[in-house]
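Sequence of citrate synthase (unknown stereospecificity) (Devosia sediminis).
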Amino acid sequence: MSGSMQGGRAAGALLTATEVAARLGVKKDTVYAYVSRGLLSKHGSTDSAESLYDPSEVEALARRGRKAPAAQAVSPTFKSSITAIVGGEPYYRGLPACELAVQRSFEEVVFLLWHGDFDGAGKAAFPVAVAEPALGAVAAMMSRSALPLERFGCLVPFAAAEDALRHDTSSEQVTRKAARLMVRLLSAMDQLSPPADASLAALLWSRTSPRPATPGLLAALNAILVLVADHDLGAPSTAAVRLAAAGRADIYSIITVGLASFGGAVQGASTLSIERDLFGLNARPDVGQLVGDKLRDGREMQGFGHRAYPDGDPRARLILQLLRDSREAVAEVRLLDEIIDIQNQRGREPPNIGFSIAALAHCAGMQHGSGELIFNYARMAGWVGHAMEEYDAPKTMPRLKSIYVGPPPMSEGA
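Predicted 3D structure, token representation.
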């Protein structure tokens, strides 16, 4: 061994404190503490004042603190019959989500996710939107600079406080509460345009765009709501919701957990970034300059590629085609296609659902931040569905376990 080399150093050569700290995953001060406790022996260097350490002692100390290998890490696994992604396509309860998006209303798909069929589904299952003076007053107190999703999310705890029976997690009660909440939250927000009809898609449009809804773009919004309603546990927000439901959090808390989890940089920030880029085209409709400016700043335009769909996100393909077919935002769609063409020439992956949501918001003239509200409003359906599955499961909280990578355990007197 003494004659072999490893990483430019003779195997068995003494290690510096910096190398020991890196090997053990600790700070240098901890290495010195190990020496004072007799766990490591230090050897003087012949050409410097720095102490050196025997690698065999370091390995022995590492073995003392080593836990199970990372490959054996324990993660919670949940059984679900809601969503499957097979062959590059999402399925809800075994039905192709992309077909549902153009054949069914969002309300019908919500009930499919919650109950596994369309019985009792449709607009009649949701209460009629009426004025919400109490929640509306809460919304009115918020800063005018607050984004739509921030306003929306702040209303949930107030709605919960009004429901003394919110801890009833029976299927019937959760269905009623969730359906009512989905209407109430939108009703409490400022109306920017008259709703085109009694659908949830039309109600959402009226709270996000000052323009009257057009048939083609409203159909695209309904399709987005369907396609974003769930995506299994791939999103951090849905995984967080499932854990909260395992602890029997009430349905209002479930929604709050989902919204809070989405608001982080991993999932939420990309939606706003795409919106900001597209809305910038209103003042400067130069697609090449938009992409070039971002590259100059060392950034890529978000909204391209999805790890679940290596061959392209089918949800985005459908929505973008609906926008093209509508012929209701020709100039905006032309710029969107220019962006896609440039990114394709650069070898970027195809656009994802986040890009298509921002694309609709751009075409519909929606206020800034509407894209993330659309996403979260749709995903509420999936969160509730996963919560209902967990409520019906045995009351056993999933046991999480970390892989310990800290200093080796030792007694204080060692």
